[in-house]
Design a protein that fits this description.
Radius of gyration: 21 Å
Distance between the termini: 44 Å
Number of domains: 2
CATH topology of the largest domain: FAD/NAD(P)-binding domain
CATH class of the largest domain: Alpha Beta
Number of strands: 20
Order of helices and strands: EHEEHEEHEEEHEEEEEEEEEHEEHEHH
Mean pLDDT: 95
Largest sheet: 9 strands, mixed
Number of helices: 8
Helix content: 25-40%
CATH architecture of the largest domain: 3-Layer(bba) Sandwich
Strand content: 25-35%
Length: 387
């Protein structure tokens, strides 16, 4: 049985970022994924656009601003070849949107200027999702096409499928949270779609209106490659008989059934219509389509750090169910188990920043900001458990 200091489950941008920062502490790391490669789920289907969050001051905007500044600096200094920093033009959807933008002007965190029908933010960028995940996880031992069905705490180790031991276990499994047996840990799957198209139209910068449109890359004398994303599908019905099934692996390499193909084709039409509302794209040929489930928490904040053991915490403090406040540090935690999840559609903005914060917390006892930890979700959930 192989033993590791650290095991990370999930090789999307969150898991690859974790493995990258853990590598600074140890070479005894294993990165596991049910897919055949990194960035094979939501991260591979992401447009991977990096842009500011607009709005009046609040905790979420503050988090996105800090993460964007950190991630942009890190990408530029370490993965500049994977970064395309050409600016993003944010276009208001309607007059109401324009009025909102004007009300946000006193609170702008980043430089901008009027441009065409919108506002150009020079910091706006795109990162190559697969390539950056590959480089982040460089020199990390990997185990792909491996489905983790059970994790169990035995003495000082976490036992994975009765085959692998880890001193510390990190879960970055996105919308599939089947390994977490805590009801307060609430994640919604929001399915996104990205399409790559060839067009005779040249696009000079990134744009965002109702979808995101990337700067074009010249392929030959008359054709340019452009990426368009993303859609937001939340399915109320059971999708297990389609490719929109969280338990499936390598979903972008399997043969889709009729229902899946119909949804994909509908979303392609929606994306092309929205893209053409930004810039007219001529002679379009769709050459690649990827789908993936983004993980979003109920309050849109990410979920980072240790998990509270709800059963043991209720046994020690039964009055929590009556709404009594218990200091976070007094709750019973699950030892040496950590999560980085709920990064939603801003995974390539948030993950580097949060992974660095989590690794410092797990290994150097640095305190995490309260708004990104799991305490907030437990507290809200616990108050609703009164018999």
């Amino acid at each position: 049985m192989k033993k590791y200091e650290y095991v990370v489950i999930g090789a999307g941008i969150a898991g690859c970022s974790l493995s990258h920062f853990l590598k600074k502490y140890s070479d005894s790391i294993l990165l596991i994924d049910k897919n055949e490669d990194v960035a094979s789920g939501a991260s591979g289907a992401a447009g991977a656009f990096l842009s500011p969050l607009l709005g009046k001051p609040n905790k979420f905007k503050e988090l996105i601003t800090k993460a964007l500044n950190f991630s942009m600096d890190y990408y530029k200094n370490n993965f500049n070849e994977e970064l395309q920093n050409c600016g993003t033009c944010r276009i208001p959807r309607n007059q109401e949107d324009e009025e909102k933008f004007q009300s946000y002007i006193p609170y702008m965190d980043f430089e901008y200027e009027k441009y065409e029908d919108g506002y150009l933010f020079p910091i706006g960028s795109v990162i190559k999702p697969y390539e950056v995940c590959l480089k982040l996880s460089k020199d990390i031992e990997k185990l792909f096409n491996y489905e983790v069905s059970k994790i169990e705490k035995i003495d000082d180790y976490w036992l994975i499928n009765d085959e692998i031991k880890a001193k510390k276990l990190f879960l970055s499994t996105g919308a599939n949270i089947s390994l977490i047996d805590e009801k307060y840990f609430d994640i919604r799957a929001v399915w996104g779609q990205k399409i790559d198209v060839l067009t005779s139209s040249q696009i000079d910068i990134n744009y965002h209106k109702e979808c995101s449109l990337s700067k074009s890359k010249k392929i030959d004398e008359n054709r340019y490659l452009v990426s368009i994303g993303a859609t937001h599908n939340r399915f109320d019905k059971d999708m297990k008989n389609s490719s929109y099934n969280l338990e499936l692996a390598n979903i972008n390499k399997i043969e889709h059934n009729k229902e899946t193909k119909e949804i994909i084709e509908t979303d392609i039409r929606k994306l092309l219509k929205k893209a053409n509302d930004i810039k007219q794209l001529n002679d379009i040929e769709v050459i690649d389509v990827k789908i993936g489930a983004r993980a979003s928490s109920i309050d849109y904040f990410p979920m980072v750090g240790k998990l509270i053991d709800s059963k043991k915490s209720f046994e020690k403090y039964p009055h929590i169910k009556n709404g009594t406040h218990i200091k976070n540090e007094n709750l019973i935690m699950i030892d040496n188990l950590f999560v980085l999840n709920g990064v939603g559609g801003r995974g390539f903005v948030l993950s580097l920043y949060l992974a660095n914060q989590l690794v410092q917390s797990a290994l150097d006892d640095k305190k995490l900001d309260d708004e990104i930890t799991n305490y907030r979700l437990f507290s809200r959930w616990a108050k609703k458990q009164k018999n």
